[in-house]
Design brief:
Elements: H1 20-31, E1 35-39, E2 44-49, E3 63-67, E4 70-76, H2 78-99, H3 105-118, E5 130-138, E6 141-147, E7 153-155, E8 158-161, H4 165-175, H5 184-196, E9 210-215, E10 232-234, H6 237-244, H7 267-274
Antiparallel strand pairs: 1-2, 1-8, 2-9, 3-4, 4-5, 5-6, 6-7, 9-10
Helix pairs in contact: 2-3, 4-5
Length: 275
């Protein structure tokens, strides 16, 4: 993106009807490490790729627990995520104190979307530079929502945000019809395969850079929790069993293995092409 006359403030529309400051905030989300969300009839899960600023630093937290029935994964500015997650916790806690019930997931997501929308309209504010994937469970079952800095929120069967998230979306679009009937283990395996698509060529998923968030009944590899089915985050050695269940990535076929391919070049031609 390039600077132009209409991006000095978020209250100024361009002649094309665009708010450039809001679009820049959406770009900040695309710079964050990837997060993937999926849901079935019984579970909703989040998977996130954690980053480390260096060999001496710990990996950055990518998931936050909001309430027993709600959790989020973030992509973008972690400091903005911390402010918004605290606001969500206050909303959920207020609902329990006033009405003695968990806050409906869609209303909780709408509350942060309304908060973010104010920053796209009032002078002197900047949009939040972070996007959320929100999973939750209520009387109607598990839910997955996406929240963006523009103040929009949408419900999905599966979704990915962050850097190189389009590759994960392509995988999810191919397989989403099977997610509804998946058990927890299969759902996590699909999520890990989608998350793997966002990695650079020389990177691999491991117990240090992978987080898994779950809402729904306990899986066969989990320890009992209280209350049952509440949001929990798996990290470190708890993720290893799911990483081991992943299928190996299909490697692109070499030209010689493709049916009806042209004859392999001679050694001289090979040297010329590689140069």
């Amino acid at each position: 993106m390039f600077r132009n006359t209409y991006d000095s403030d978020n209250t100024v529309f361009s002649p094309q009807g665009r708010l450039h400051q809001v679009e820049y905030a959406l770009e900040a989300v695309k710079q964050g490490s990837a997060a993937v969300g999926l849901r079935s009839k019984t579970h909703a899960i989040l998977l996130a790729l954690k980053r480390s600023t260096g060999e001496l630093a710990s990996y950055q937290q990518k998931m936050f627990r909001i309430d027993d029935h709600v959790g989020i994964a973030i992509a973008g500015l972690t400091s903005d995520a911390r402010v918004l997650s605290n606001f969500m916790r206050q909303q959920a806690m207020g609902e329990r104190m006033m009405f003695n019930r968990p806050m409906p997931v869609n209303r909780l997501v709408s509350s942060i979307a309304d908060k973010a929308q104010v920053n796209t309209q009032e002078y002197g504010r900047r949009p939040y530079g972070v996007g959320f994937l929100v999973i939750g469970q209520d009387q109607s079952g598990p839910h997955l929502f996406e929240f963006s800095p523009s103040g929009n929120s949408y419900e999905y069967y599966a979704m990915s945000i962050g850097a190189r998230s389009q590759s994960a979306k392509t995988y999810l679009e191919k397989h989403y019809e099977s997610f509804a009937d998946c058990n927890l283990e299969d759902l996590i395996r699909h999520g890990l395969h989608a998350l793997r698509e966002t990695l650079q060529q020389d990177k691999e998923l491991n117990v240090n850079n992978t987080s898994v968030g779950i809402i729904g009944p306990m899986g066969q590899h989990e320890k009992p929790i209280s209350p049952p089915g509440s949001f929990r985050i798996l990290e470190g050695d708890n993720v290893e069993v799911y990483l081991q269940s992943m299928e190996k990535k299909e490697e692109a076929p070499t030209p010689a293995s493709v049916p009806d391919a042209a004859p392999a070049p001679t050694a001289d031609e090979d040297v010329q092409m590689s140069g």
